[in-house]
Amino acid sequence: MPIIKGAKKALRSSLKKRVYNVRRQNAMRDILKKTYQKVTAGSKADAEAMMKEVSQAIDKAAKRGVIKPNTAARKKSRLAAQIKKMV
User: Fold this and answer.
1) At what angle do helices 44-64 and 69-85 cross, to 10 degrees?
2) pLDDT of residue 10
3) Res 53 pLDDT > 90
4) C-alpha distances in angstroms, 8 versus 3, 4, 5, 14, 82?
């Protein structure tokens, strides 16, 4: 546990930020899972419709620093490739 006053404040601040970051990461993971389920089910139209929401969630996570920019680009690219490959 922190002893110094500034360290106590930093701990409070980081715990608050953690809540937002976890929420953002869970939102991104949930929408990704739903989209991948649509891809495996074979409904291309639904997957394409969800692509905008997915890229928004991924971009927000990257902007907040929850994931790195290259990771965000890789996730979007792989999902787009899978959707494009669908018949």
Assistant:
1) 180
2) 97
3) yes
4) 7, 6, 5, 10, 47
Query: Buried b / exposed e across 14-40, counting CB within 10 Å, b at 16+?
Result: eeeeeeebeebeebbeebbeebbebbe
pTM, two decimal places: 0.84
Q: HEC states along the chain?
A: CCCCHHHHHHHHHHHHHHHHHHHHHHHHHHHHHHHHHHHHHCCHHHHHHHHHHHHHHHHHHHHHCCCCHHHHHHHHHHHHHHHHHCC
